[in-house]
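Example record

One chain of 263 residues, shown exactly as stored in the release files.
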Amino acid sequence: MSIADRLKVPAGLKVLITGGAAGIGGMIADGFHAAGAHVYICDIDAAAVDAMKRKYPGMQGAAVDVGIQEDVDRIMDEAVTVLEGLDVLVNNAGIAGPTGNVESLDAAAWEQTIATNLNSQFYFLRKAVPYLKASDRNPNIVSVSSVAGRLGYPFRTPYAATKWAIVGLMKSLASELGPDNVRVNAILPGVVAGDRMSRVISERAKVLGISDEAMRQQYLDKISLRRMVTLEDVAAMALFLSTPAAMNITGQAISVDGNVEYL
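Predicted structure tokens for this chain:
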């Protein structure tokens, strides 16, 4: 196989993407669909799931609250039935969580962030791993963490705590599942341009008592390349990790961030 061929996503891969109806997950779903994969998405937004299914003929999916184990079990059973197995799990679902001083954070918002960002990854993993072990198509897990999974993130502690935990989960599973030929990696997106980041900037600006424009510039000043990354940048890495070229890449926390120096 040539190097060029090794860089191609094999057609027919069976891919499940959580949080796959918008944002990073939606772009990853777009990329896999374009590459000829069989894609199943789940997302809490039922209307967004339906819109994706209309936009991409053949894509399957359903609405689910990923923080509820029983709902995840139901969706996993449906997904592997529809796909007739599983080659790739993209554990992407997550929320921004609350912003504020730790002493002022709401406990319910903390627990929702843990449930959505971290517990959900475990719920999908426990159901998906047996199918991945049975796959003979370079099976792999892509866990979406964040640059906040390698750096401290003042006033965003619930989010940062979950993203650091995802890296630890990935590192442990890479060792655990390596003998079964299942690879596990994490992508750490940086400051991703879009509506979600704009909301985070606005909320953090309020906490610090500065303008949104000043807060946005502070974020850019912390990036070596002085620019935000795009959804396409992150999706491209997820697809690369599912190509033959990545068959010996596992246990890695891969930043796609323009080199964020600090938060």
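Notes: Strands lie at 14-18, 38-43, 60-63, 88-91, 140-144, 183-189, 253-256.
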